[in-house]
Amino acid sequence: xxxxxxxxxxxxxxxxxxxxxxxxxxxxxxxxxxxxxxxxxxxxxxxxxxxxxxxxxxxxxxxxxxxxxxxxxxxxxxxxxxxxxxxxxxxxxxxxxxxxxxxxxxxxxxxxxxxxxxxxxxxxxxxxxxxxxxxxxxxxxxxxxxxxxxxxxxxxxxxxxxxxxxxxxxxxxxxxxxxxxxxxxxxxxxxxxxxxxxxxxxxxxxxxxxxxxxxxxxxxxxxxxxxxxxxxxxxxxxxxxxxxxxxxxxxxxxxxxxxxxxxxxxxxxxxxxxxxxxxxxxxxxxxxxxxxxxxxxxxxxxxxxxxxxxxxxxxxxxxxxxxxxxxxxxxxxxxxxxxxxxxxxxxxxxxxxxxxxxxxxxxxxxxxxxxxxxxxxxxxxxxxxxxxxxxxxxxxxxxxxxxxxxxxxxxxxxxxxxxxxxxxxxxxxxxxxxxxxxxxxxxxxxxxxxxxxxxxxxxxxxxxxxxxxxxxxxxxxxxxxxxxxxxxxxxxxxxxxxxxxxxxxxxxxxxxxxxxxxxxxxxxxxxxxxxxxxxxxxxxxxxxxxxxxxxxxxxxxxxxxxxxxxxxxxxxxxxxxxxxxxxxxxxxxxxxxxxxxxxxxxxxxxxxxxxxxxxxxxxxxxxxxxxxxxxxxxxxxxxxxxxxxxxxxxxxxxxxxxxxxxxxxxxxxxxxxxxxx
Length: 677
Fold this sequence. Notes:
Layout lengths: L2 H18 L4 H24 L9 H25 L5 H10 L4 H51 L4 H52 L5 H35 L7 H9 L3 H17 L4 H42 L1 H7 L5 E5 L4 H4 L7 H16 L6 E5 L7 E6 L2 E7 L5 E4 L11 E4 L6 E5 L1 H10 L2 E3 L1 H20 L2 H12 L3 H7 L6 H13 L7 H11 L6 H11 L1 H8 L5 E7 L1 H9 L1 E4 L2 E4 L3 H20 L5 E4 L1 H11 L7 E4 L8 E8 L2
Parallel strand pairs: 1-2, 9-12, 9-14, 12-13
Antiparallel strand pairs: 1-3, 3-4, 5-7, 5-8, 6-7, 10-11
Helix pairs in contact: 1-3, 2-3, 2-7, 3-6, 3-7, 4-7, 5-6, 5-7, 5-13, 6-7, 9-10, 13-15, 15-18, 17-19, 18-20, 19-20
């Protein structure tokens, strides 16, 4: 057992023993001195701690000190009533502090009780109650702010965890303090009652047992009672004061005294005014001039010194900032820090800042968090940290999206407007500012708040500015998610899978495939919008086929075929006939005959004229499907699929190409066109 544990246990045990077992006056003196010492220690600790959590055990400490003080009260009462000799400390407090008179001691005692009850306890109790309520109410907002900072990269996972723990500790502390203040209040009440009982009991004992007159008995025992009450209430008052200081402490960056002195005497003009007022009172009123005039002069001099110090500190701060900036420029690592490139950046003009500022009601940060969650659920990969920055070089309502430091797209919004889009069947037009939806470049109209309800009733799709930015950002991430998948991301996915399937991972990596090869397969899947969330099935397929080939493109095709349920569910609705485009067998034969195998992989050597003819035919058939309002899906034989996709991806980025082996048997297909050459 630790020494501290033994000490605390003995402290509590002593309190319990003192309630039961009589003690002599010498031991009581020692315990009363110890009680006063502990009260002073608690008081000064609350003065100098930087934040309330530095004394997170304070509510329990209040309970301990209260019990110990009451135990001493009981012991001193027992000695007063039995022997009339409670020891030096009690007698000294009665004679010296109480002025050697029972009435004086009683008045001082009552004043202390009033101060403790009415001023300190009541205020502390109310502050603790309000602090507990506001701390609990603020917890969700603080948690969201932490998530937002974590998402934008302002803090790390470790820092976020520390902040969350701190929030929980604060809530627990103020909740406990709300109840612990009742200990202090109850202690004061108990002290008052004990004192009255001592006075009545002591007077009765003196008259009946010692044969004293009433006046003599009440003087003798009253003096001892007041001494007992004072040596108990003064430590109690110190503890109450410490409680009030702790629950009202707001600063988290400096100790109490520095903050207090700095705020109280930190403004020179205030000191000048006070000094002038005191000097005026000393000169023009009957008040003693030799008291007020020197005091006024002292305040004016103090104001001059503060003013001078402020000027010096200002110059020193400017010099320090200049030196710091110069030092930063001179640092070799300063250049190195500039080399870091953020995977995803969203930069916006100053007009869009309110959308990202939580204090102004903006929820763009929360939407960014939701985007990362949505992509994780949809594609099975973690989106890198998205940096949000304001850029004064942009137009006020403009925003740009960067991938790896390079701008890939941009958009513009009107802050107090809504974007209305015609889904295609609305005939009635509404007035507004013509524009284009940034994600899909569809025609749209900017409308005001007053037009929103009417536009929605007509059938228009109405979107607010934060949703426009969030949708645009989501689409950009979807289209670039493959290149954002790094080896480290793959390693994290592998580590996560290894926890539940260690045998599979150990068999595949690195014995059969390297991490880079696995990354390439996953990138191929993501590049065509196929989710890698079912990593177990993907790795099982890779482990089954790596014995025959290590070509990542071919392995990707095997994986796609094994994921046919997911692919069919994504592209082919249940209980519906899906319109598709097929390939002429002659075209398939032309493509396969032009495939050249090398050590670096396979590539097409198709004749440019033949390629042009095939692309034209694809364009024609795709247009037919788009005019019908349907997605363009081309279905091919398994061996041709990946080569046809490579052939067309530069011309038709969103063209869906699947093979027959990737379609479930219950899917109904209807060919509405054929690609010919």
